[in-house]
């Protein structure tokens, strides 16, 4: 097998692993938010059983704020899951789009959700969304295209 085929296979495996990482990342956020909502609701109910007067109302209001904050986080995580679900890791395109694995002169980017720098098989990957500043610049680019980011010229070398 030649080096080019080997590199492509490694990138395709990395793309699948990155997608699985993103799904697990979002699932963990969903579970954390749900657990926090349940805990805050339980605390509010317990507060009601053991307290009276202003202290009760203050505690209950604080728990309600906690529930609202975690409900918002849960909604955001579910929206991220909706972005990930339609991605087909076996699909390749000639232009950068949602689900692309993009090799540039500045690093390798997986276009999915904003999860930051991730290491897969000892290799660094930037997991970014199309809404991020660099994601917006990468969107629609083809191999050979160049763009400037933070004063640095970046070239698109490969799209998987």
Write the layout of secondary structure elements.
Blueprint: H1 3-50, H2 53-84, E1 101-104, E2 107-111, E3 116-120, E4 123-128, H3 133-138, E5 146-149, E6 152-159
Parallel strand pairs: 2-4
Antiparallel strand pairs: 1-2, 1-6, 3-4, 5-6
Describe the 3D structure.
The protein has 160 residues and is an alpha+beta fold. The protein has 2 domains: 3-84; 101-159, no CATH class. 54% of the residues lie in helices and 20% in strands. A 6-stranded mixed beta sheet has the order 3-4-2-1-6-5. Strand 3 and strand 4 form a beta hairpin. The radius of gyration is 21 Å and the shape is elongated.
Task: Describe what is shown at a glance.
By secondary structure, the chain is of the alpha+beta class. The chain has helices at 3-50, 53-84, 133-138, and strands spanning 101-104, 107-111, 116-120, 123-128, 146-149, 152-159. 54% of the residues lie in helices and 20% in strands.
- Coarse structural class: alpha+beta
Low-confidence stretches: none
- Strands across the major sheet, in which order? 3-4-2-1-6-5
**Radius of gyration, taken over Cα atoms and rounded to an integer in Å:** 21 Å
- Give the overall pLDDT as a whole number: 89
**Total of helices:** 3
Q: Please report the distance between the alpha carbons of the first and last residues.
A: 19 Å
Characterize the biggest β-sheet.
6 strands, mixed
Give the fraction of residues assigned to helices.
40-55%
Overall tally of structural domains: 2
- Per DSSP E runs of 2 or more residues, the count of β-strands stands at 6
**What's the assembly state of these chains?**
single chain
Content of β-strand: 15-25%
Overall outline: elongated
H/E series: HHEEEEHEE
């Amino acid at each position: 097998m030649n080096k080019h085929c080997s590199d492509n296979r490694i990138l395709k495996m990395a793309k699948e692993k990155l997608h699985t990482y993103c799904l697990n990342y979002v699932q963990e956020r969903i579970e954390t938010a749900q657990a926090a909502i349940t805990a805050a609701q339980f605390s509010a109910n317990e507060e009601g059983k053991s307290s009276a007067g202003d202290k009760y109302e203050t505690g209950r209001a604080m728990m309600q704020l906690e529930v609202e904050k975690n409900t918002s986080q849960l909604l955001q995580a579910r929206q991220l899951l909706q972005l990930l679900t339609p991605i087909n890791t076996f699909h390749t395109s000639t232009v950068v789009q949602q689900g692309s694995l993009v090799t540039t002169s500045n690093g390798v980017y997986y276009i999915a959700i904003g999860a930051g720098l991730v290491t897969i098989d000892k290799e660094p990957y930037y997991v970014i969304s199309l809404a991020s500043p660099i994601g917006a610049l990468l969107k629609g680019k083809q191999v050979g295209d160049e763009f400037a980011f933070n004063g640095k010229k970046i070239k698109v070398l490969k799209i998987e």
